[in-house]
Specification:
This protein is of the alpha/beta class. It has eight helices and twelve strands.
């Protein structure tokens, strides 16, 4: 019996973004199938956030095409948004709202009403362990709880694709461990892409790594393939060493 090919859920085709003469990203291409957890790795300023904003439809590409679940995000923005949960580095939180009020607000914005909203609300509250702070102003919550609220709003409409930009930034070790566990559980029925510059984060949760440097994709492979003599740091340095001419994993750096 022929093997069924996994559906492509996140796709970048020759994405480039220019700001005048400055090149933020250049000719980035990759395809992510159903069920993968992909770490989008790179130094600060490498182009990770720019790429994620284009994939999520928050930013228009100068060249190339981005799609979510087969939907071109520039031409079918609203349809693609229904398939996507997006958690930016500084999430869309309103300090004067409670988590309960915020989720109700986002539920109305996504046309979730009645029994459907109630079911999804209860589900994300359980998934993100927000029971204890539902009626507390978001502005008074810890960084860890604020991140949980951000994740809850990204999951509220039950998207097939989840994209997160530096989701563990500012969290303590216990909070990071809880977050990683949550991501692995979510990957059972979602395709997940996480941007990070932390090697340990990539190794802990991802089954595939994309590495960008100076706006270009320089590595696409398994976490073990990014190790050299047992160390990811050495290979990371080799691939992101300024002035390095040509890398075998991804072309010119």
């Amino acid at each position: 019996m022929a093997q069924v090919q996994a559906k492509t859920m996140i796709e970048a085709e020759n994405l480039s973004k220019y700001y005048g003469s400055f090149v933020a990203i250049k000719d980035i291409s990759f395809s992510i199938p159903t069920g993968q957890i992909v770490a989008f790795l790179g130094p600060n300023g490498a182009g990770k956030t720019t790429t994620m904003k284009i994939l999520s439809g928050f930013l228009a590409a100068s060249e190339g095409r981005a799609s979510i679940a087969g939907l071109d995000v520039s031409r079918r923005r609203l349809e693609a948004a229904r398939k996507l949960g997006y958690l930016p580095e500084n999430g869309p939180l309103y300090d004067n709202m409670t988590p309960q009020e915020l989720l109700r607000f986002f539920g109305e914005a996504r046309d979730l009403r009645g029994a459907r909203f109630k079911t999804r609300f209860e589900t994300v509250i359980e998934q993100c362990a927000l029971q204890a702070v539902l009626e507390k102003p978001i502005g008074k919550l810890s960084r860890g709880y604020r991140q949980r609220v951000g994740l809850a709003q990204a999951l509220l409409h039950d998207p097939e694709v989840l994209i997160m930009d530096e989701p563990t930034a500012g969290l303590d070790p216990n909070q990071i461990r809880e977050f990683r566990t949550n991501i692995v559980e979510l990957s059972r029925n979602k395709t997940i892409m996480i941007s990070t510059h932390i090697l340990q984060e990539a190794a802990a949760v991802a089954n595939r790594i994309l590495l960008v440097h100076e706006g270009r994709l320089v590595f696409d492979g398994l976490p073990d393939e990014l190790r050299h003599n047992g160390s990811m740091e050495e290979k990371f340095y080799d691939l992101t060493n300024y002035g390095r001419a040509v890398g075998t994993e991804g072309g010119q750096v």
